[in-house]
Amino acid sequence: MELELFNEGRSGLNPAPLAERMRPRDLSGFIGQEHLLGEGKLLDRAIKKGELPSLILWGPPGTGKTTIARIVAEASKSEFLEFSAVLSGVKEIREVIKAAKENLRRGKKTVLFVDEIHRFNKAQQDAFLHSVEDGTITLIGATTENPSFEVNAPLLSRCKVLVLESLPSGALKEILGRAMKDKERGLGGLKAELEEGVIDFLSGISAGDARTALNALEAAYMLTEPDPGGVRHISLKAAEEAVQRKAILYDKGGEEHYNVISAFIKSMRGSDPHAAIYWLARMVEAGEDPLFIARRMVIFASEDIGNADPGALRLAIDVKDAVDFVGMPEGWIPLAHGVAYLATAPKSNASYLAYLEAAGDVRKHGALPVPLHIRNAPTSLMKGLGYGKGYKYPHSFKDAEVEQEYLPEVLRNRTYYRPNERGHEGEIAERMKKKEQK
Fold this sequence. Notes:
Elements: H1 2-7, H2 18-21, H3 34-37, H4 42-49, E1 55-58, H5 65-75, E2 79-84, H6 90-105, E3 110-115, H7 122-133, E4 138-143, H8 147-150, H9 153-157, E5 160-163, H10 169-181, E6 192-194, H11 198-205, H12 210-223, E7 232-234, H13 236-243, H14 255-269, H15 273-285, H16 290-305, H17 311-326, H18 332-344, H19 350-365, H20 380-384, H21 424-437
Parallel strand pairs: 1-4, 1-5, 2-3, 3-4, 6-7
Helix pairs in contact: 6-7, 10-11, 10-12, 11-13, 12-13, 14-15, 14-16, 15-18, 16-17, 16-18, 17-18
């Protein structure tokens, strides 16, 4: 069946995997990493100027590190030499540098691409230093590990580190769709059709990895028997079998999306960490955007916890930053950390309700005038009109507290913020109570 896949509809055998065949040949075909390759961005400018610096490409698997290296080498009219840090040593490095020097004598630049550069030891990495520094080679290293820890400082200082991001679901869908239509390199020249839900499932299950998504699509094709007309209808069942994972009912654009996120929020609000973690897992395993989840957690930290635990908002933002930095698939780790904390934190929606009441008064009464005594008076004219007259500077009084009206006359003595007794907000409530009793 595998030979049939590569022969059907083609003039000759092409045994390369679909992910390799669909590798973009130039920037116009590259999907994702717009922060590096978009118009006017760093690599776009470098390619147009023909001035390519040595680079360390750091990012998750399947995000385009090798492809970018090939494209920029081609665009800079350089010879592209590639080897793996797993299989090569100092001897091979010296041979490559010797070849690069020959290229240089012929007026040809050399781009040396080292996959998994973090696997090189210090001596192997040091072997590049002089050649990188004198311009014999332009080094492009690819790594899934933090180069700050895995690449030695002298080599790191001679390279520009570029961070690649996990591909979003939309980019993976576009890549899969292109593979289905491409008649030269993809499945477009074969009799293949996708049933509803397959692309959504594969893009969600691939954790931002284009290679994984394309390999799964190809495996699903191989597992699908042709109908009497020779057409292979790739089903969701075949896609599940290809990745050995069940598709989870979770339409990110439909009702189930809103049902699950509602259950997630309500479980945290109800202080049930077990249910909250379960609904988190439902979303992550179905391929939900982890930053969408993190944003909901930031909102929850203010809306439902507030001043009962002021540290909750800081933690939620730290979780968002961690997920954005780490990406998937490991992003679920800080998400679970944050959910467990938020679900068990003391709860208060007092500040949330306070704003809603204040906003109601703004809509009801319109733009009420600011009391004269708390207006700013930067000019003599404004002072003459009474701006700031009678204002009592709190720091001039004991405990920095003074009886003074700050609301418009219509809203005098209006109460919006009513802290409860839970967590830190209990201390706030006590302070407010003491102030009222003075």
